[in-house]
Design a protein that fits this description.
It is a single chain. This protein has three domains: 83 residues, Arc Repressor Mutant, subunit A (Orthogonal Bundle), CATH 1.10.10.10; 74 residues, Arc Repressor Mutant, subunit A (Orthogonal Bundle), CATH 1.10.10.10; 50 residues, no CATH class. Helices cover 55% and strands 12% of the residues. The chain is built from eleven helices and seven strands. α5 packs across α7.
Length: 248
């Protein structure tokens, strides 16, 4: 019985810690009771949860921890003590400074897939100067010089580093998604977005399946549907295509 009580305490602490938004008492109770794979389930009373939170906060005070569980927006969430706000602000600024821009992400993608690759080759693919992006990627430790090309001028060759693998959570470059897989992912995301747009326009699921590929956003930012293509339009399109002389 004592083991179950301690387990409950650890679960309450872990779910509040792991949540990115306040958890209500009811939500915590549901987490204890719901199970999709016949896992352990506990019934926990509201007072048990509140008592556990008070005990945890008392422990944090006693051990001089820099955080507490606070009640906010009807739920409970971890929060850092106010006296550490300046340090958290510095951390957020540092993260923002180190965040990859669109330009550096595009440059990094070229290097990752084409390595070893020279700066002129990167610029030829992207169509813009790559000096700044390469510099930032090297400062981040994601890209390094791996040699020189055997071409006139002996330009530097760039490749990715071990930190690149760590940053993206892969063990080897062979785990990078293939270009075809990226196209499939982008296409799937586009279809999901269009389904959501059609739902917001009040379409049924049957209508959504029929109308996929016809929803657009107009210049004024409003959702619009392309008119359905009639048989006459289809025939006209075919005639236009047939009138085009074949390429020599």
């Amino acid at each position: 019985m004592e083991h179950i009580s301690e387990n409950k305490r650890q679960i309450i602490e872990s779910v509040i810690f792991g949540s990115d938004e306040p958890l209500t008492i009811r939500q915590i109770q549901d987490i204890f009771w719901q199970s999709d794979n016949n896992g352990p389930r506990f019934r926990v009373k509201e007072e048990e949860i509140l008592t556990t939170i008070r005990e945890l906060n008392a422990e944090y005070v006693q051990t001089n921890r820099p955080f507490r569980i606070i009640q906010v927006a009807g739920g409970f969430q971890y929060a850092t003590m106010p006296e550490f706000a300046e340090w958290l602000g510095r951390m957020i600024k540092e993260k923002a400074r180190r965040k990859l821009t669109q330009a550096t992400i595009e440059t990094l993608s070229v290097i990752a897939y084409k390595q070893p690759v020279t700066k002129p080759e990167i610029e030829a693919i992207r169509g813009v100067n790559a000096d700044y992006a390469i510099q930032k990627l090297m400062e981040r430790g994601l890209v390094t010089i791996v040699g020189r090309a055997a071409t006139p001028g002996r330009p530097l060759l760039y490749g990715t580093t071990q930190d690149f693998l760590k940053h993206f959570g892969i063990n080897d470059l062979s785990e990078l998604p293939k270009p075809r897989e990226i196209d499939e992912i982008m296409a799937e995301q586009g279809m999901d977005m269009e389904r959501e747009l059609l739902r917001r326009m009040g379409k049924t699921e049957e209508e959504i399946e029929e109308r996929l590929g016809t929803t657009v956003v107009s210049e004024n930012g409003k959702l619009e549907e392309l008119p359905p293509q009639t048989d006459q339009q289809t025939d006209a399109d075919s005639n236009i295509q047939s009138d085009v002389p074949p390429q020599e």
